[in-house]
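Need a sequence for this fold. Nothing fancy.
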């Protein structure tokens, strides 16, 4: 149960009086999710999600919440943070940062078909374009620098062939990032964690992207790679499903055409997307934070994906 901070209906009634949402009618903890305490709340004006942030601070959160507001105001389907009467979208609840956002309808699509991938691809391109004029700048905190810092901490736990793969892929990515192709790739704020469990669908209709707490500035193509590596694969083997890949890439390209340089970088980015999650999963597996209660995700899933992305030619982007 991912409710680390208890919020009663009385607590909510008092705290939510600062928002123009009417009276608080009900509150229910959300059991999935591992980072924050999330609640569905019913207010007189409708249903919302209340998040009490357990790790991110008052200083860190404005980047993510302002980005969500920026996107929502440009018709990208994301939860809209609700401002209180002073205009603040981040307010203390039980001493922790908390916010109310609009509730997305529907549920996650954990067995996506091409039709779902098409929706995700089109909305991802729309999101990249809409974020171009977002004024706050924060790098992707799980980018190359983090990979370089993290690899030495997990290397000792890997068998020799795993160590070799990790070291050689890191070298490859460092060289690639220093090269001229990489410098030409369009970039801006990206979601950076757009997995199946971070998108809501009502049937075949996409209702929103959520969980923006790994967002940061990086290449748009890296975001596409992370998304393809989760949405368009067979989860057992890690192999790309070509119908889903085509649906996602074609839909993205129709909104924001890929460049020739992006085509040259595509295989490297698919590899980068796999390396990023292999590393974070290794780190969470071998270096769990104190009092961590979660069951870590399987790191070998992304090792398998990385090996496949290295050995197979990348599909055409467009
Ligand atoms: N705006 C929203 N509208 C509808 N449901 C939401 C919304 N935000 C979160 N949820 C629901 O709450 C669940 C947990 O949210 P989320 O995935 O953001 O959890 P977390 O603990 O913050 O992060 P993590 O996914 O990293 O564990 C989601 O799976 C989803 O069902
Ligand atoms: N999407 C991540 C988890 C948290 O963001 C993973 O599957 O490893």
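Here you go.
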């Amino acid at each position: 149960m991912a409710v680390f901070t208890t919020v009663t209906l009385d607590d909510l009634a008092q705290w939510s009086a600062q928002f123009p949402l009417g009276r608080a009618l009900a509150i229910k903890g959300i059991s999935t999710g591992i980072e924050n305490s999330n609640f569905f709340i019913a207010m007189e004006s409708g249903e919302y999600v209340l998040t009490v942030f357990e790790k991110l601070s008052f200083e860190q959160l404005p980047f993510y919440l302002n980005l969500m507001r920026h996107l929502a105001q440009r018709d990208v389907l994301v939860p809209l943070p609700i401002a209180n009467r002073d205009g603040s979208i981040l307010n203390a609840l039980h001493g922790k940062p908390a916010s109310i956002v609009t509730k997305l309808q529907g549920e996650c699509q954990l067995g996506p078909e091409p039709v779902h991938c098409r929706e995700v691809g089109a909305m991802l391109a729309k999101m990249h374009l809409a974020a171009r004029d977002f004024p706050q700048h924060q790098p992707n905190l799980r980018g190359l620098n983090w990979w370089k810092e993290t690899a030495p901490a997990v290397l000792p736990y890997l068998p020799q062939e795993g160590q070799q793969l990790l070291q050689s892929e890191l070298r490859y990515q460092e060289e690639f990032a220093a090269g001229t192709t990489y410098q030409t790739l369009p970039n801006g704020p990206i979601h950076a964690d757009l997995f199946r469990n971070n998108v809501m669908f009502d049937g075949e209709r996409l209702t929103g992207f959520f969980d923006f707490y790994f967002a940061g500035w990086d290449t748009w193509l890296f975001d596409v790679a992370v998304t393809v590596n989760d949405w368009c694969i067979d989860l057992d083997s890690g192999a790309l499903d070509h119908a889903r890949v085509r649906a996602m890439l074609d839909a993205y390209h129709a909104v924001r055409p890929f460049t020739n340089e992006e085509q040259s970088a595509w295989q490297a980015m698919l590899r980068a997307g796999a390396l990023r999650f292999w590393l974070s999963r290794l780190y969470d597996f071998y270096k769990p934070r104190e009092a961590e209660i979660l069951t870590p995700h399987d790191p070998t899933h992304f090792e398998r994906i990385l090996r496949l992305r290295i050995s197979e030619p990348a599909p055409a982007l467009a």
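For context: DSSP finds ten helices and nine strands in the chain.
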